[in-house]
Amino acid sequence: MFLYLVTKNHSFSDGNKRIAAFLFLWFLSNNELLYRKSGDKLLENNTLVALTLMIAQSKSEEKDTMVKVVVNLINKNN
């Protein structure tokens, strides 16, 4: 939800997708989810870019689906 809302709400005058991606990584890091137990990154850079762009281009009625994609990705990779 965090990544979705910062990306879609256009809280900033510029750089919303970049700021959303950074804040999402910060959130994952603070909650000890940024790295798998093996030490590998949870999300590769290209995956984070794809997720952020997918959310930015999604329709508002697809919000629940976009949030589920992110949650499932985190749960699957952790």
Automatic annotation (TrEMBL):
Origin species, per record, is Chryseobacterium salivictor
What residue stretches are annotated with the Fido domain?
A: 1-72
Q: Which Pfam families match?
A: Fic
| Domain of life (superkingdom) | Bacteria
Q: What is this protein called?
A: Fido domain-containing protein
Q: Where would one find coiled-coil regions in this protein? A: none
SUPFAM superfamilies (UniProt xref): Fic-like
